[in-house]
Amino acid sequence: MIDLSQVKHIHIVGIGGISNSAIAEILLEQGYQVSGSDLNRTSITDHLVEKGVKITYAHLAENVEGSELVVYTAAVAEDNPELVEASRIGIPCISRAEMLGQIMAGYGKSIAISGTHGKTTTTSMLTRIFNDPTLDPTALVGGYFTDIKSNVKIGKSDYFITEACEYKESFLSFYPKVGIILNIDEDHLDYFHNLDQIVSAFVKFAHNIDDDGTLVLNGDDYNSRKIIPYYKGKIITFGLADHCDIIARNITYNGLGYPTFEVFSRDEKLCKLTLSVPGQHNIYNALAAFAASRIYIKDIQVIASRLSSFKNANRRFEWIGKQNDVLIIDDYAHHPSAIKVTLEAATRMEDVNRILCIFQPHTYSRTKELLNEFASSFSLAEEVILCDIYAAREVDHGEVSSLDLLKALKKEGVSAVHFSDFDEIVKYVVNYAVPGDMILTVGAGDVYKLAPKILEALKKTQ
Predict the structure, then answer these.
(1) Active site residue ranges
(2) Long-range contacts of 217-223 (CB under 8 A, 24+ apart)
(3) Per-residue pLDDT tens over the stretch 37-84
(4) Which residue segment(s) compose the domain that 397 sits in?
(5) 44 domain-assigned
(6) pTM: predicted TM-score of the whole model, two decimal places
């Protein structure tokens, strides 16, 4: 642990990232001098500059001069010149997760949301539930959330809400009062060797939850249930099965795919919810948020009303527009399981006849390790339009490409094409789409840029 009381100036490498930028705002609010570096200037970095952060748009050794602590993300390489220089001159360096963990330690009522899928949505739900003047939480969301007009809300209370990512076991720097496990699936296989190692990481996360705290866990998820024997504190399970503590029953869907269901605590009916977000996966997210909220909020109707009016964070089944009776939706799904539930949610919309899914694979390692799973996850799409793989933090070693996924999709009987150029994709989709179609852009890279381009191109065809 770093004694932050002895630190005045903190430098953040990769300050433009969603989590690092949120940390920067919290540190500014707490009175620290903050500087940072990033390779790209964005609206996020511009916002931080307006708040007084000095940002350099290059990774240079001299950037760390004058700082007393350097914070870096897991994506920053060990040979980064700023980390090398900080080490050379004796400036302590800690990871983003370690910094966030130290910030969290200053709050007595912390909620950390973990799981392979659904973290940002569930964190946004909890932020909405707690976001009033009487509770006034500090919250970090993994995307822009309209309710707080940002990815971070800085409150004055003892409540702290944050996502807890398992990548490189970064969530093991957190010691929350309430920990949520939404689900456990195979992912980040560039770091984890197998599913057993992933489950072990979540066991360690559960160990970090305060002994007097609560573990909120998906009782329908086989891998999540493996954690139960390892946590000795209070456990609340949620799901659709009768063995869970918080249960959704009598589920129906409207024409937009939005679910209505009754929430039970075992056999006691607590309330009725109609969500304003689609799909069964959001029932699970809402149950997790409901269960965690009840620990601190006793008025069930307050929780229910705020969940019912919840709208997704950006890139979570986000409605981009409708033109020529063609609907355009953008979603962050980048794992086979997430793609399946996103497509399932899309098929529940009664005015949608066909789904044209534009998919950008995210990282070479994930594409290689889960190639067959990806190939079998698009069965509900009329056609899949593949982009090139988005490298993110990785280097292309020539082991896998989108053409390999194209072959695998065709082997599964899924109609699919591939384009390397975004403009070619726009041209193809606009010519192919007919009234009643949904164009769904999917992936964690920059595929979201296609959605507004397609919308504009459709307008020109009128």
Answers:
(1) 119-120, 163
(2) 217/180, 217/181, 218/115, 218/181, 218/182, 218/183, 218/284, 218/288, 219/243, 219/244, 219/245, 220/244, 220/284, 221/182, 221/183, 221/184, 223/183, 223/184, 223/185, 223/195, 223/198, 223/199
(3) 999 899 999 999 999 999 999 999 999 999 999 999 877 888 999 999
(4) 318-459
(5) yes
(6) 0.90
